[in-house]
Amino acid sequence: MGCGTSVPEFDENEGHYTKVSKPNPWAYTKPITRTELMKMRDEFWDTAPHYGGHKEIWDALRAAAEAELSLAQSIVDSAGIIVASADMTTCYDERGAKYELPKYVLSEPTNLIHDD
């Protein structure tokens, strides 16, 4: 997601986060190029609807993952997505379907290398 910062707000009554935030820094298992990262992202989004849930929610999650935080928040809110982890790695739709997103679709790893 984008470069902005946000403090996640947890709603104790509802048991989920009300604000999305940028994922914590992470590293892929080995150094990875931008081309490899984009290929992994494309493969994930192409196959995501097969993991269950609803295509329109997967589409909204992709749009949110690729947007700046403020826009991502608006997308999540308007799609009725329940954010179980502030970094959007675990979400639910209003019907209770679970959506798990790998960090590589939400942010770049710390060991990203330039393509040669």
TrEMBL record:
Q: What is this protein called?
A: Uncharacterized protein
Species of provenance: Dioscorea alata
